[in-house]
């Protein structure tokens, strides 16, 4: 297990091999939690709720139009797929703005 040094303002450098393994890139969000005897650091993804909500309701309307005379089970399946698709479409890594 590699050792890291805490520098100014509490910053640490995550070793390159660990960043590559976890897919961590500059600007990514990380969640830091206290755990038994230390802390855990996990990559996290932010979701824009308003964007997600808008896309979801547009998809619901499209589904309603496309399945007007369909079996209710088909409608339920189509809505479940829309929920999955909306989650995937809006899930993104939030990058800080560079000046």
Automatic annotation (TrEMBL):
InterPro entries, alphabetized: Repressor-like_regulatory, SpoVT-AbrB_dom, SpoVT-AbrB_sf
Pfam families assigned: MazE_antitoxin (PF04014)
UniProt keyword terms in alphabetical order: DNA-binding
GO MF annotations in UniProt: DNA binding
Domain SpoVT-AbrB, first and last residues per copy: 1-46
UniProt superkingdom: Bacteria
Name of this chain's protein: Transcriptional regulator, AbrB family
Organism: Syntrophobacter fumaroxidans (strain DSM 10017 / MPOB)
């Amino acid at each position: 297990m590699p050792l890291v040094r805490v520098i100014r303002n509490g910053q640490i450098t995550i070793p390159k091999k660990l960043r590559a393994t976890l897919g961590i890139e500059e600007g990514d969000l990380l969640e830091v939690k206290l755990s038994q005897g230390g802390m855990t650091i996990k990559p996290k993804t932010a979701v824009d709720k308003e964007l997600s909500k808008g896309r979801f309701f547009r998809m619901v309307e499209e589904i309603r139009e496309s399945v007007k005379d369909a079996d209710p089970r088909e409608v339920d399946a189509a809505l479940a797929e829309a929920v999955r698709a909306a989650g995937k479409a809006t899930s993104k890594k939030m990058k800080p703005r560079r000046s």
